[in-house]
Amino acid sequence: MNELKTIISAIKDKLGENIVILDIKKVSTISEYFIIASADNERKVSAIAKNVEDEMKNISYFAYSKEGYDTQKWIVLDYGECIVHIFKNEERAFYDLERLWKDAPYIDIDTILA
After folding, report:
1. pLDDT at residue 55 above 80?
2. Can you give the CATH number for the domain in which 48 is found?
3. What total of structural domains would you count in the chain?
4. Which helix (H) or strand (E) is 98 found in, with range?
5. Distance (Å, rounded) from C-alpha 41 to C-alpha 114?
6. How far apart are CA 103 and CA 70, in angstroms?
7. pTM more than 0.90
8. Residue 14 belongs to what domain range?
9. pLDDT tens-digit map of 2-49
């Protein structure tokens, strides 16, 4: 859970919006958690993703893969147990991961940050 706290804090530090954590471990084998957040422009999307990477490095976690820095509309950081999705608002509405993963329960962010 330390990783989740670090990710959420890093997103909040750069003013990420509409942060959601989905517990996908019972509905998929690809990961345990999806962390989804958004921002209103590409520059913020990139800044949030970069801050997540920097803060995770501080606790010795490194992304296995990362995608989307070239367009900055949907950046994905794969940490194995946690996959972070940072969207520009329009892309988030279009792809609607929360609907696609509707069987995955939400985790209350306040319990992570406590």
Report:
1. yes
2. 3.30.460.10
3. 1
4. helix 97-100
5. 29
6. 31
7. yes
8. 1-112
9. 899 999 999 999 999 999 999 999 999 999 999 999 999 999 999 999
